[in-house]
Design a protein that fits this description.
By secondary structure, the chain is of the alpha+beta class. The protein has one domain. The protein has seven helices and eight strands; from the N terminus they run ααααββββααββαββ. An eight-stranded mixed beta sheet has the order 2-1-3-4-5-6-8-7. The longest helix has 19 residues. The chain is globular, with a radius of gyration of 17 Å. The chain starts with a helix and ends in a 22-residue tail after the last strand. The N terminus is likely disordered.
Amino acid sequence: MSTKMKLKRHVTLAAACVLGSSTVVAETASDVGPEILPRDCERSLALSAAPHYLQAEASIYVLTSQGYMLDRVGSNNFTCIVNRDDPRVLKPTCFDEEGTRTVVPTIRYFGSRMLDGVPVKSIRKEVSAKFRSGELESQAKPGVAYMLSRYNRPVNPTTGELGFFPPHVMFHAPNLTNEDIGHDMAHHDMNRPLPMIAYGGPQGYMIMISDDGTPRSRSDLPASCPAWIFE
């Protein structure tokens, strides 16, 4: 793939993040729930989101047929989990204490409802209602969510297919907009990435790409991980 094509692909996926991947994901019906991965694969994917120095003491959630289950209780206030906001996607994320308190419950709820066979669009409406009622909470202070995994698989809103989004770090940024920070996707350059806003509104984040260019390798994850994660 040419450098120009790669840049175009990353810009499209960056736009998906800025839009909350709503173009395709919100219209996807969950006729079949998310794939339940082998536990060691799921665990490794979750931890791959965090810096190495945080991994050993982070809590871990894994998705099972009964929903997200606590696989390990950590001691550093970080929680690693493979976020799924569509049956097809994998979004390994490691949240700080504030994200653990506010975002992880939302992820766990979303996963359980997909396993019940509820369409994604309906789940999003349920989640919005729970935020309005106060049953789910938005982040109340600044913080960080690490997404340093090379196996972040969002849906491309243009093609409807899975893509790869590069390692990055997200900072809680409620109600901040791209206009506020002077970011314009039309001038987005993956070779010199600047911060951008994703999931705007009370649950918004500022994203900063943190990719050292290390290629993906089958040896990064356990042999139990299915081939589609790497392709």
